[in-house]
């Protein structure tokens, strides 16, 4: 596979290793918003994405308005996965949209969205989420996907359109990228996606060479895991996902995986890992630079 053409547009060589250290689920709860602010100030992350339908979105938007240098995208949200805190679509409450369950919330899991959601309703909802972020004063840098739902073949066109129509990069891997399994894309699905991805790259869409993620299954040695994963980042541009949250009663009440989220946070608030990133040979980059290169082109 040829070197990622985006590297040259950004002013890097074909062998440079660029990593977007990216925090998901901002605004899902207060603990996620606080964690982003702390990690941004500490300097071990370079981007994040906000969930506009969620309860703490207004606080996340206020944080971004006060800190306009923050690199914040929209975390396209079509699932409400927890038992004790739920959220609903921005664009509609109509059951005919297929976006909501019998209680009026987003479906908990991806399969229910695939089986019920109408494509036009998904498109309208995604655009409403992006517009909500922009209207709240967030300088949106990109669009990515909560739980990978919008990247299903039924809805991926809406995902791409929402980004390209606004000259915003999507989180989008090259066909050769490491990490498709993390997104739940098997070999058969990848074969179907490959021609589309190749066409997008030929048209100049910004694309990624790696998709890595910190674990949410356990809280063991997250510093060591982060070092290992960052060391494995390939030449090109890697989107490195974590789900950090401060340890609060609210977080513990919401998330069964709260220990792992706190471990993500503690690892990236650690000076040992900060120094490792500095010495590792990788270069941190955010989506702001990618968006600007896309718009310049």
Write the layout of secondary structure elements.
Layout: H1 5-9, E1 17-26, H2 30-42, E2 47-50, H3 57-66, E3 72-76, H4 110-116, H5 119-135, E4 143-145, H6 156-164, E5 173-178, H7 187-202, E6 208-213, H8 222-231, E7 236-242, H9 249-254, H10 258-268, H11 271-279, E8 283-284, H12 287-296
Parallel strand pairs: 1-2, 1-7, 1-8, 2-3, 3-4, 5-6, 6-7
Main pleated-sheet profile: 8 strands, parallel
Write down the secondary-structure element order.
HEHEHEHHEHEHEHEHHHEH
Radius of gyration over alpha carbons? 18 Å
Mean pLDDT: 94
Number of strands: 8
Tell me the CATH architecture. Answer: Alpha-Beta Barrel
Into which percentage range does the β-strand content fall? Answer: 5-15%
Q: Please report the number of helical segments.
A: 12
Distance linking N and C termini = 23 Å
What is the CATH topology descriptor?
TIM Barrel
Based on secondary structure, the structural category is alpha/beta
Q: What overall geometry do the principal axes of the alpha carbons give?
A: globular
Q: Work out the helicity level.
A: 40-55%
Q: Uncertain regions: pLDDT < 50 for 5+ in a row?
A: none
The CATH first-level class comes to: Alpha Beta
CATH superfamily annotation: Glycoside hydrolase/deacetylase
Number of domains: 1
Structural summary, described in words:
This protein is an alpha/beta fold and 297 residues long. It has one domain: TIM Barrel (Alpha-Beta Barrel), CATH 3.20.20.370. Helix content is 41%, strand content 14%. It is built from 12 helices and 8 strands. Strands 1, 2, 3, 4, 5, 6, 7 and 8 form an 8-stranded parallel beta sheet that branches. Helix 7 (187-202) links the parallel strand 5 (173-178) and strand 6. Helix 8 runs parallel beside helix 11 (271-279). The chain is globular and about 50 Å long. The mean pLDDT is 94.
């Amino acid at each position: 596979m040829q070197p990622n053409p985006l590297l040259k547009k950004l002013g890097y060589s074909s062998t440079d290793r660029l990593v977007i250290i990216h925090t998901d689920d901002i605004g899902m709860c207060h603990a996620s918003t606080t964690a982003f602010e702390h990690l941004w100030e500490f300097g071990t992350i370079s981007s994040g994405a906000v969930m506009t339908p969620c309860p703490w979105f207004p606080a996340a938007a206020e944080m971004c308005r006060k800190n306009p240098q923050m690199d914040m995208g929209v975390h396209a949200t079509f699932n409400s996965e927890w038992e004790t805190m739920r959220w609903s679509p921005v664009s509609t409450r109509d059951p005919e949209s297929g976006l909501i369950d019998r209680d009026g919330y987003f479906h908990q899991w991806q399969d229910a969205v695939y089986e019920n959601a109408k494509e036009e309703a998904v498109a309208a909802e995604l655009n409403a989420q992006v517009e909500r972020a922009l209207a709240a004063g967030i300088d949106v840098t990109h669009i990515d996907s909560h739980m990978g739902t919008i990247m299903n073949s039924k809805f991926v066109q809406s995902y791409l359109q929402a980004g390209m129509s606004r000259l915003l990069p999507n989180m989008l891997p090259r066909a050769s990228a490491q990490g498709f399994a993390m997104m739940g894309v098997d070999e058969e699905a990848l074969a179907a996606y490959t021609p589309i991805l190749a066409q997008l790259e030929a048209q100049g869409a910004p694309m990624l060479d790696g998709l890595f993620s910190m674990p949410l299954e356990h809280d063991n040695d997250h510093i060591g895991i982060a070092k290992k994963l960052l060391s494995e980042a390939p030449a090109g541009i890697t989107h490195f996902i974590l789900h950090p949250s401060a340890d609060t009663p609210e977080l513990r009440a919401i998330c069964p995986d709260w220990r792992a989220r706190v471990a993500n946070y503690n690892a990236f608030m650690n000076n040992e890992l900060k120094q490792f990133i500095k010495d590792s040979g990788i270069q941190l980059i955010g989506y702001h630079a990618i968006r600007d290169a896309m718009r310049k082109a």
